[in-house]
Amino acid sequence: MIMQKLVRLSEHVVYLPPYQETDRPVLAAISGERYTLLMDAGNSSSHAKLWLSQLAEHNIKGDWLVLTHWHWDHVFGLSEMPIPSLCNTETFERIIEMQKLSWEDQAIDERVKEGTEILFCADAMKKELGSDRNIRIKAPDITFSSKMTFNLGGITCIIEHVGGDHSPDSTVLYVPEEKILFLGDCLYANMYAKEWCYTREKVVEMISKLEQYDVEIAILSHGMEPLNKQEYKAFLELLINATDLANRFKGDIKQVTDEMSSMLKRPLNELETETIQFSINGYRQ
Ligand SMILES: [Zn+2]
After folding, report:
1. Is residue 165 one of the residues assigned to a domain?
2. 86 is in which domain, residue-wise?
3. CA–CA separation, 194 vs 183, rounded Å?
4. pTM of the model
């Protein structure tokens, strides 16, 4: 039995940490004096129920739920959520498409073979869902196209569509009073491409939107710990530099690696090496 525990991040923000074994993402709640906004629905009924029971223990009840993007691990728990849900128009369209799919092993395996499902997600899905494959993904209730602000009572939450390589519909949640930014999966690579990738254009466009927010704490939906200001800035810089160098050196991995290493004045770590590889994959596409 998985027992993740709710974590209080600030006076107004709590979250349920991710669980890597079955790819459960962070779920969060932002509470003002009048309303509470929930982020994402979880990757299964049991994930959603665990979150709701943890919230109930802390006397928190959601009023609306916002989805960060359409991927299964963020939306499969939606039917368990007894409140109105919102998402980007593109997220909505993808969910409607997903409603038509079967989630039995054979159907999932076929989609992996034809390249429309990711092996890593298929494995996580089978583990998380067990034999309960009667998945009904509820259509979200409200859609938006770019940006909305929730006045929760003494605290605000801005939701904005930022796109990016991971998923074109990616939306972030920002709490200005506490300088907390929920990134969803937007900083991760495109995993539906033949080779996982970042592309210069999408990175630049996404980061120009993210940079308007003054951030002290940033939460990646699959990151074990929140990022502090420096770590967050470093991640954005890494994406900017890796995609820039991949273009400048026309996908030459040695030149890109050497240049990045000399910029940082040290050998590269695993995240940096991987980001360079994904940026080169993006350049070559
Ligand atoms: Zn995702």
Report:
1. yes
2. 7-99+136-206+214-228
3. 24
4. 0.96
